[in-house]
Amino acid sequence: MSPSVRLQEMIRVIRSARTQCEERGVIQRECAAIRAQFRQADNVGRSHNLAKLLYVHMLGYPAHFGQMECVRLIASPRYSEKRVGYLGAMMLLDEKQDASLLITNSIKNDLSHSNQYVQSLALCTLACMGSAEMCRDLAPEIDRLLRTSNSYIKKKAALCAVHIVRKVPELGELFTTAAHSLLSEKNHGVLHGAVVLITELCEQNPESLAQFRKVVPELVHIMKGLVMSGYSPEHNVAGISDPFLQVRILRLLRILGRNNDTASDAMNDLLAQVATNTDSSKTAGSAVLYETVLTIMDIKSESGLRVLAVNILGRFLLNNDRNIRYISMMSLQKIVQTDHNAVQRHRGTIVDCLKDPDASVKRRALELSLALVSAVNIRSMMKELLLFLSSCPPELRAQAASGIFSAAERYAPSQRWHIDTILHVLTTAGADVRDETVPNLIQLITTANELHSYTVHKLYRALVADISQQSLVQVACWCVGEYGDLLLRAECDDTEPVQVTEDDVLDALETVLQSHMSSPATRGFALTATMKLSTRITHNVDRIRSIVSIYGSCIDLELQQRAVEYNALFKKYDHMRAAVLERMPVIDKTSPGHSKGEMTAGPVQERDQTQKQPAVETVSQESTNQASNLLDLLSSSDDAPQSTPAQPHSLDACPTSSSSPEGDLLDLLGGLDLMPAPSLTVYEKNGVTLRLQCDRQMDTGVSITLSASNSTDGDITQFNLQAAVPKCVQLQMKAPSGDVLPARAAGQLTQAILLKNPNKVGLRMRVRVSYCSQGTNYQDTVQIDSFPSVAWQ
Q1: What is the Cα–Cα distance from 189 to 156, expressed in whole angstroms?
Q2: Counting Cβ atoms within 10 Å, is residue 507 exposed (0-12), middle (13-18) or buried (19+)?
Q3: Per the database record, which ranges form the GAE domain (predicted)?
């Protein structure tokens, strides 16, 4: 076999290989030659062969057969061979390899070597791949080297001690005294190692904090010397004296000053000096200032110092480097909850970042802009946010729309402004809003009695102009159906009235029904609106009847059921149509079934409510036959009315039962409308309240709604609920209404759960609640053993 080539020649041949197969062949031949030479007892080129093997390892090829050769070279008395052997050990060995135990004794001997470079090789290897057993055996040697007079060895021993503390935290006490003494060194490398070691000791063992808080004056003295020192070519980086050491010292001061008044007071003057004397035009200066800001915000600093820190972050926003702008906005996002007024001063700069071409910077600017919205600046901020919404990337549109809705709900100066803002969002990004937007806007419109005419005119114009935004079309159809008579009167003081005829309105609704862009839910809104117009117009009732009859054979079951029921109203119960289709009452947002996110099935609920609510008012006026007919209608039956009264339903809301049809109907509807769903509080902690409410859906099914609210001063994010039930009960969780709980109980999140309980056993459920409040993650588990009786009776 031909002897292997030199390292440089092997690298040249490998790089000149045209294909991977050719490269693989070269490496296989070289590895075979290296193996053969490893087996020779008088091999004089062992270090060169191992060096070539390390290059092969760097290329990703197996080189494990060189591990024992590393052990032999480490034991060699020659420095050139030790150097390659230790390098091979750091690359080919780790603490899981048995061969690593064979070099423990060699490392121990080399730590006592007279040559400082041999000692440094042993220290680097131990710091790189030392196992817990090796660290325990060699820790006394490291402590000894920390006390030597050689600065070159001290700095390497300090970093090796950091590795030992991470591997075996209980050995930290061994290095406490030596770490303290290293702070008196003048060598910057030793100081850097000492600061890193003290930081690690404080993080691993909280008891060490009390001991090292005594060294705060020494750290302040060292830091002042770095800040005020003149030009030093040895440590100068872009005009900053040793920024690496400054950053490490500031990080250690942040740990020592956290939740401690004495330590914080000792470093306040230093932090002010660093913040005012450090040049931020270079990256090194920006790094030091950023660590200064983090330290100021984390310790118990003075209010003026915190304002200075916010101003530094504000200057970062003007930096040309996008990375610096990004970390500035991340820091301001954490500060805005506690120093809202200080961050408000930089509102203009933050809003300008919304125009940044970088997507990550835009996202952070959007989050920060939404956090800055208040009752004082709601109008100006909303203009900027709506302008951003019209041109923002598609991946940010949903987040922007959701944030605008939340801010408008909390700080709207008037109902008209609130409605206009939501309609603007629906017009711009109607396809990206959440499902609960439609019922929430409908609830807002119903409460604004004086704006009904203004709203229906504005929505009608939007409907005629564009039917591609499904959320907007659904709200517009609902308003046209409810307030069509106001639209036809053309009486609107707040906007220029438009002369609309009955045919125009029906043409618009028929366009929605026939459009391929309309979803089944949107068609349901349009069909219901068309039906409601039959009681609000006078000349086109026959056209409405024909439109409704067409959908009696629709392939969509929901539309078909609606059309069949509406046809029944026209044919059998025309005398009751006006009462059944009268205007919806004002929706109470806090009542059961109308909380945030609980009206996602808008068309279905609208149909049920338009039929149920007027029915109760009509019962006392109609005869026995009419009550039976209405009961037939609600059960979606086309059969002739039966003279036999229906069996009464036993509901808790009805004190007595009657054998007459009127009594049966009152029993049925009274239990649904007059009695609130039973509920109970299952979780109340950290300002979060979770309530559970139950409603019977069918004989073997139960609908459970978990409603969460937040009473703290800050928004709670990443809110998530998980549930588990016994195996005999089937659980289905629907999509939650969101993952952000607004502050001060401004809104609530809901999670709908369907339970199938065919055996009607006693229900038990375990709920896991997780959320993030003020930067802290919480997770709790709640065991629910007590349910309202309606859940299993």
Answers
A1: 9
A2: exposed
A3: 675-788
The string of pLDDT tens digits covering residues 670-691 is 443 444 567 788 899 888 999 8
Going 92 to 94 to 98 to 100, the CA torsion angle's sign is positive
Q: Which residues contact 553 (CB under 8 A, 6 or more apart)?
A: 560
Mean pLDDT, to the nearest integer, of 38-63? 83
Q: Would you say 158 and 124 are in contact if contact means Cβ atoms under 8 Å apart?
A: no
Q: Please, are residues 160 and 127 in contact by the beta-carbon 8 Å criterion?
A: yes
pLDDT digits (tens, 9 = 90+) for 492-521: 665 566 678 888 889 999 899 988 988 999
Distance between CA 345 and CA 349 in Å, rounded? 9
SS3 at position 775: coil
Q: Transcribe 324-354 into DSSP letters.
A: HHHHHHHHHHHHTTT-HHHHHTTHHHHHHGG
* Distance from the Cα of residue 537 to its chain's centroid: 49
Say if CB 193 and CB 252 are below 8 A apart: no
Residue type (1 letter), 786: S
Q: Which helix (H) or strand (E) holds 2?
A: none
Task: Work out the angle between the directed axes of helices 46-58 and 20-38 (0-180°, nearest 10).
Answer: 150
| CA–CA dist 299, 444 (Å, integer) | 45
The tokens describing 270, both together, are: 């230093």
- Nearest Cα to 513, choosing from 467, 570, 568, 461? 467
DSSP label at residue 770: E
Which of these, 92, 171, 85, lies nearest to 135 by C-alpha position? 171
**What global pTM score does this model have?**
0.63
Take residue 276 and report the two structure tokens written for it.
């005012």
- Are 172 and 204 spatial neighbours (Cβ–Cβ below 8 Å)? yes
Cβ atoms of 53 and 47 within 8 Å: the answer is no
> CA torsion 618→621→625→631, rounded to 10°?
20
Q: Which residues contact 699 (CB under 8 A, 6 or more apart)?
A: none
Query: Is-contact 497 490, C-beta < 8 A?
Result: yes
Phi, psi of 690 (to 5 degrees): -120, 120
Q: What angle do CA 244, 248, 253 make, to 5 degrees?
A: 145
Helices (H), 205-242: 207-212, 216-228
701-710: strand order across its sheet:
679-685, 688-696, 701-710, 748-756, 730-733
CA-based nearest residue to 440, from 402, 495, 484? 402
Report how far residue 580's alpha carbon sits from residue 5's, in angstroms, rounded to the nearest whole number: 96
Q: Measured between alpha carbons, how far is 765 from 727 in angstroms, rounded to an integer?
A: 11
716-724/730-733 β-pairing: unpaired
- Work out the angle at residue 261's Cα, subtended by the Cα atoms of residues 260 and 264, and round it to the nearest 5 degrees: 85
Q: What is the pLDDT of residue 740?
A: 87
Q: Tokens 């300008």, residue? A: 352
Over residues 444-499, the pLDDT tens digits come to 888 888 888 888 888 888 898 888 888 999 999 999 998 888 888 866 665 566 67
Q: Radius of gyration over alpha carbons of the chain, in Å?
A: 38
Question: Is residue 347 within 8 Å of residue 378, measured between CB atoms?
Answer: no
Question: What are the distances in angstroms from CA 705 to CA 597, 598, 753?
Answer: 11, 9, 6
Q: What six digits make up the tokens of 118? A: 């041999």
